[in-house]
Amino acid sequence: MITVTTRSELHEALASARSATSRIGLVPTMGFLHEGHLSLVDRARQDARFIVMSLFVNPLQFGPGEDFERYPRDAERDAMLARQRGVDVLFAPAVTEMYPDGEPRTFVEAPGLDNRLCGAFRPGHFRGVLTVVAKLLNLVHPDIAVFGRKDIQQLVLIRRMVRDLEFHTTIEGGAIVRERDGLALSSRNVYLSAEERMQATLLRRSLLDASEAFGAGIQDAAELVQRVRARLADGALVRPQYVELVDAESLENVPIAAAGDVLAIAAHVGSTRLIDNIVLGETAD
Of 11, 34, 37, 168, which residue is the catalytic one? Predict the structure, then answer.
Protein backbone atom coordinates (compact mmCIF):
# COMPACT_ATOMS: atom_id res chain seq x y z
CA MET A 1 0.00 0.00 0.00
CA ILE A 2 1.09 3.54 -0.68
CA THR A 3 -0.25 6.61 1.09
CA VAL A 4 -0.75 9.78 -0.94
CA THR A 5 -1.86 13.19 0.25
CA THR A 6 -2.18 15.24 -2.93
CA ARG A 7 -4.29 15.02 -6.05
CA SER A 8 -1.21 14.80 -8.26
CA GLU A 9 0.17 11.87 -6.24
CA LEU A 10 -3.22 10.17 -6.47
CA HIS A 11 -3.35 10.58 -10.26
CA GLU A 12 0.17 9.15 -10.57
CA ALA A 13 -0.72 6.14 -8.42
CA LEU A 14 -3.86 5.49 -10.45
CA ALA A 15 -2.10 5.73 -13.80
CA SER A 16 -0.34 2.39 -13.37
CA ALA A 17 -3.56 0.68 -12.34
CA ARG A 18 -5.35 1.97 -15.43
CA SER A 19 -2.49 0.99 -17.70
CA ALA A 20 -2.82 -2.57 -16.37
CA THR A 21 -6.57 -2.38 -17.16
CA SER A 22 -7.38 -3.12 -13.53
CA ARG A 23 -10.88 -2.36 -12.33
CA ILE A 24 -10.69 0.29 -9.64
CA GLY A 25 -12.73 0.31 -6.45
CA LEU A 26 -13.20 3.26 -4.10
CA VAL A 27 -14.05 3.15 -0.39
CA PRO A 28 -14.60 6.69 0.94
CA THR A 29 -14.21 7.08 4.73
CA MET A 30 -13.66 9.75 7.36
CA GLY A 31 -11.10 7.55 9.07
CA PHE A 32 -10.94 6.15 12.60
CA LEU A 33 -11.46 2.84 10.87
CA HIS A 34 -13.38 -0.10 12.28
CA GLU A 35 -14.55 -3.42 10.87
CA GLY A 36 -17.51 -1.74 9.21
CA HIS A 37 -15.16 0.32 7.03
CA LEU A 38 -12.87 -2.62 6.39
CA SER A 39 -15.76 -4.84 5.30
CA LEU A 40 -16.40 -2.30 2.53
CA VAL A 41 -12.90 -3.01 1.23
CA ASP A 42 -13.82 -6.70 1.06
CA ARG A 43 -17.01 -5.83 -0.85
CA ALA A 44 -15.12 -3.63 -3.30
CA ARG A 45 -12.56 -6.39 -3.83
CA GLN A 46 -15.31 -8.64 -5.21
CA ASP A 47 -15.58 -6.39 -8.27
CA ALA A 48 -12.25 -4.60 -8.48
CA ARG A 49 -8.56 -5.53 -8.37
CA PHE A 50 -7.22 -2.13 -7.32
CA ILE A 51 -8.67 -0.50 -4.19
CA VAL A 52 -8.44 3.15 -3.22
CA MET A 53 -9.56 4.18 0.25
CA SER A 54 -9.99 7.85 1.03
CA LEU A 55 -9.46 9.13 4.56
CA PHE A 56 -10.87 12.62 4.87
CA VAL A 57 -12.91 14.30 7.61
CA ASN A 58 -15.01 16.56 5.42
CA PRO A 59 -15.80 19.91 7.09
CA LEU A 60 -18.63 20.65 4.65
CA GLN A 61 -20.86 18.00 6.19
CA PHE A 62 -20.57 19.24 9.77
CA GLY A 63 -22.96 21.91 10.94
CA PRO A 64 -22.45 24.55 13.65
CA GLY A 65 -21.97 22.92 17.04
CA GLU A 66 -21.31 19.47 15.58
CA ASP A 67 -18.19 17.46 16.33
CA PHE A 68 -15.82 18.31 13.46
CA GLU A 69 -12.96 19.39 15.72
CA ARG A 70 -13.27 16.46 18.12
CA TYR A 71 -14.23 13.82 15.56
CA PRO A 72 -11.96 10.85 16.41
CA ARG A 73 -8.80 10.61 14.33
CA ASP A 74 -5.89 8.14 14.31
CA ALA A 75 -4.10 8.30 10.97
CA GLU A 76 -1.31 5.90 11.91
CA ARG A 77 -3.71 3.18 13.07
CA ASP A 78 -5.92 3.75 10.01
CA ALA A 79 -2.96 3.24 7.69
CA MET A 80 -2.01 0.00 9.44
CA LEU A 81 -5.55 -1.38 9.23
CA ALA A 82 -5.96 -0.37 5.59
CA ARG A 83 -2.66 -1.99 4.69
CA GLN A 84 -3.58 -5.19 6.49
CA ARG A 85 -6.89 -5.33 4.62
CA GLY A 86 -5.23 -5.04 1.23
CA VAL A 87 -5.92 -1.43 0.25
CA ASP A 88 -3.64 -0.42 -2.62
CA VAL A 89 -3.77 3.37 -2.24
CA LEU A 90 -4.72 5.34 0.85
CA PHE A 91 -5.67 8.89 -0.13
CA ALA A 92 -5.40 11.12 2.96
CA PRO A 93 -5.59 14.75 1.83
CA ALA A 94 -5.61 17.85 4.00
CA VAL A 95 -8.64 20.13 3.89
CA THR A 96 -6.60 22.64 1.88
CA GLU A 97 -5.84 19.96 -0.71
CA MET A 98 -9.50 19.08 -1.22
CA TYR A 99 -10.66 22.70 -1.07
CA PRO A 100 -7.65 24.77 -2.18
CA ASP A 101 -9.74 27.92 -2.66
CA GLY A 102 -11.58 27.56 0.62
CA GLU A 103 -15.22 26.54 0.79
CA PRO A 104 -16.39 25.83 -2.77
CA ARG A 105 -18.88 28.02 -4.59
CA THR A 106 -20.43 25.01 -6.29
CA PHE A 107 -22.30 22.30 -4.40
CA VAL A 108 -24.31 19.18 -5.21
CA GLU A 109 -27.78 19.08 -3.68
CA ALA A 110 -30.75 16.71 -3.82
CA PRO A 111 -33.87 18.74 -2.99
CA GLY A 112 -36.69 16.62 -1.66
CA LEU A 113 -34.33 13.85 -0.60
CA ASP A 114 -31.73 15.64 1.50
CA ASN A 115 -34.19 17.32 3.88
CA ARG A 116 -35.78 14.11 5.18
CA LEU A 117 -34.69 11.83 8.02
CA CYS A 118 -31.22 12.99 9.12
CA GLY A 119 -31.34 15.90 6.70
CA ALA A 120 -34.28 17.43 8.57
CA PHE A 121 -32.08 17.80 11.66
CA ARG A 122 -28.73 18.44 9.96
CA PRO A 123 -29.36 21.15 7.35
CA GLY A 124 -26.60 21.25 4.76
CA HIS A 125 -25.15 17.91 5.83
CA PHE A 126 -25.98 16.01 2.67
CA ARG A 127 -24.99 18.93 0.47
CA GLY A 128 -21.53 18.51 2.00
CA VAL A 129 -21.61 14.74 1.58
CA LEU A 130 -22.69 14.81 -2.06
CA THR A 131 -20.19 17.52 -2.94
CA VAL A 132 -17.19 15.68 -1.49
CA VAL A 133 -18.30 12.34 -2.96
CA ALA A 134 -18.66 13.97 -6.38
CA LYS A 135 -15.10 15.32 -6.04
CA LEU A 136 -13.78 11.90 -5.04
CA LEU A 137 -15.54 10.18 -7.95
CA ASN A 138 -14.05 12.72 -10.34
CA LEU A 139 -10.58 12.34 -8.83
CA VAL A 140 -10.53 8.52 -8.82
CA HIS A 141 -12.93 7.58 -11.65
CA PRO A 142 -13.63 4.24 -9.96
CA ASP A 143 -15.55 1.43 -11.58
CA ILE A 144 -17.24 0.73 -8.24
CA ALA A 145 -17.61 2.66 -4.99
CA VAL A 146 -18.92 1.11 -1.80
CA PHE A 147 -20.80 2.82 1.04
CA GLY A 148 -22.21 1.32 4.21
CA ARG A 149 -25.93 0.69 4.56
CA LYS A 150 -25.96 2.01 8.12
CA ASP A 151 -26.36 5.50 6.66
CA ILE A 152 -29.15 4.46 4.32
CA GLN A 153 -30.06 8.04 3.39
CA GLN A 154 -26.51 8.75 2.30
CA LEU A 155 -26.49 5.63 0.14
CA VAL A 156 -29.81 6.55 -1.49
CA LEU A 157 -28.69 10.10 -2.24
CA ILE A 158 -25.35 9.04 -3.69
CA ARG A 159 -27.03 6.50 -5.95
CA ARG A 160 -29.43 9.18 -7.15
CA MET A 161 -26.61 11.67 -7.76
CA VAL A 162 -24.66 9.12 -9.79
CA ARG A 163 -27.74 8.27 -11.85
CA ASP A 164 -28.83 11.87 -12.41
CA LEU A 165 -25.37 13.25 -13.23
CA GLU A 166 -24.16 10.29 -15.33
CA PHE A 167 -21.16 9.28 -13.25
CA HIS A 168 -19.70 6.09 -14.69
CA THR A 169 -19.43 4.35 -11.34
CA THR A 170 -21.50 1.55 -9.85
CA ILE A 171 -22.55 2.31 -6.28
CA GLU A 172 -22.85 -0.67 -3.94
CA GLY A 173 -24.05 -0.85 -0.36
CA GLY A 174 -22.14 -2.81 2.25
CA ALA A 175 -23.96 -4.66 5.02
CA ILE A 176 -24.14 -3.12 8.49
CA VAL A 177 -21.44 -4.60 10.71
CA ARG A 178 -22.34 -4.97 14.36
CA GLU A 179 -20.88 -5.74 17.73
CA ARG A 180 -21.87 -9.07 19.25
CA ASP A 181 -24.68 -7.36 21.17
CA GLY A 182 -26.10 -5.82 17.99
CA LEU A 183 -24.83 -2.25 18.25
CA ALA A 184 -23.93 -0.98 14.79
CA LEU A 185 -20.24 -0.13 14.51
CA SER A 186 -19.60 3.60 14.40
CA SER A 187 -16.58 5.79 14.94
CA ARG A 188 -18.72 7.77 17.38
CA ASN A 189 -19.26 4.76 19.66
CA VAL A 190 -16.04 5.76 21.46
CA TYR A 191 -17.93 8.73 22.90
CA LEU A 192 -20.30 6.44 24.85
CA SER A 193 -19.89 5.81 28.57
CA ALA A 194 -20.32 2.24 29.82
CA GLU A 195 -23.97 2.85 30.74
CA GLU A 196 -24.68 4.67 27.48
CA ARG A 197 -23.01 1.85 25.55
CA MET A 198 -25.37 -0.67 27.16
CA GLN A 199 -28.48 1.40 26.48
CA ALA A 200 -27.40 2.06 22.87
CA THR A 201 -28.23 -1.57 22.08
CA LEU A 202 -31.92 -0.60 22.36
CA LEU A 203 -31.72 0.88 18.87
CA ARG A 204 -31.11 -2.53 17.35
CA ARG A 205 -33.47 -4.36 19.66
CA SER A 206 -36.30 -1.96 18.90
CA LEU A 207 -35.84 -2.43 15.15
CA LEU A 208 -35.88 -6.21 15.56
CA ASP A 209 -39.10 -5.99 17.57
CA ALA A 210 -40.77 -4.09 14.74
CA SER A 211 -39.32 -6.39 12.09
CA GLU A 212 -40.68 -9.43 13.91
CA ALA A 213 -44.09 -7.75 14.17
CA PHE A 214 -44.01 -7.11 10.42
CA GLY A 215 -43.13 -10.75 9.85
CA ALA A 216 -46.14 -11.71 11.98
CA GLY A 217 -48.43 -9.72 9.69
CA ILE A 218 -48.55 -6.20 11.13
CA GLN A 219 -48.32 -3.68 8.31
CA ASP A 220 -49.63 -0.48 9.86
CA ALA A 221 -46.68 1.92 9.83
CA ALA A 222 -47.85 3.85 12.90
CA GLU A 223 -48.03 0.66 14.94
CA LEU A 224 -44.55 -0.47 13.85
CA VAL A 225 -43.09 2.94 14.66
CA GLN A 226 -44.80 2.89 18.04
CA ARG A 227 -43.26 -0.49 18.82
CA VAL A 228 -39.83 1.00 18.17
CA ARG A 229 -40.52 4.03 20.34
CA ALA A 230 -41.89 1.88 23.17
CA ARG A 231 -38.72 -0.20 23.30
CA LEU A 232 -36.48 2.87 23.09
CA ALA A 233 -38.34 4.28 26.09
CA ASP A 234 -36.72 1.52 28.18
CA GLY A 235 -33.49 3.52 28.04
CA ALA A 236 -33.42 6.57 30.29
CA LEU A 237 -30.40 7.89 28.38
CA VAL A 238 -31.92 7.31 24.91
CA ARG A 239 -33.65 10.29 23.28
CA PRO A 240 -35.10 9.45 19.83
CA GLN A 241 -34.68 12.15 17.23
CA TYR A 242 -36.80 10.35 14.65
CA VAL A 243 -38.29 6.94 13.99
CA GLU A 244 -39.66 6.65 10.45
CA LEU A 245 -40.81 3.99 8.03
CA VAL A 246 -39.91 5.05 4.49
CA ASP A 247 -39.76 3.87 0.91
CA ALA A 248 -36.25 2.68 0.11
CA GLU A 249 -35.85 4.94 -2.95
CA SER A 250 -37.98 8.03 -2.43
CA LEU A 251 -37.43 8.13 1.36
CA GLU A 252 -41.07 9.19 1.67
CA ASN A 253 -43.07 7.94 4.63
CA VAL A 254 -45.33 4.99 3.89
CA PRO A 255 -48.63 4.35 5.74
CA ILE A 256 -48.65 0.61 5.08
CA ALA A 257 -45.42 -1.36 5.37
CA ALA A 258 -44.21 -3.62 2.58
CA ALA A 259 -41.15 -5.79 2.11
CA GLY A 260 -38.20 -3.61 1.14
CA ASP A 261 -39.32 -0.56 3.11
CA VAL A 262 -36.79 0.88 5.55
CA LEU A 263 -37.40 1.47 9.24
CA ALA A 264 -34.85 4.07 10.34
CA ILE A 265 -33.81 5.55 13.68
CA ALA A 266 -31.71 8.46 14.84
CA ALA A 267 -31.30 8.90 18.58
CA HIS A 268 -29.06 10.60 21.08
CA VAL A 269 -27.64 8.26 23.67
CA GLY A 270 -26.32 10.66 26.24
CA SER A 271 -24.79 13.35 24.03
CA THR A 272 -23.85 10.97 21.20
CA ARG A 273 -26.01 10.81 18.09
CA LEU A 274 -26.38 7.33 16.60
CA ILE A 275 -28.29 5.99 13.60
CA ASP A 276 -29.50 2.54 12.61
CA ASN A 277 -32.04 0.95 10.28
CA ILE A 278 -33.53 -2.30 9.12
CA VAL A 279 -35.02 -3.33 5.78
CA LEU A 280 -38.33 -5.07 6.33
CA GLY A 281 -38.56 -8.56 4.90
CA GLU A 282 -34.80 -9.02 4.58
CA THR A 283 -32.56 -11.16 6.73
CA ALA A 284 -31.28 -8.84 9.44
CA ASP A 285 -27.66 -7.65 9.21
Answer: 37
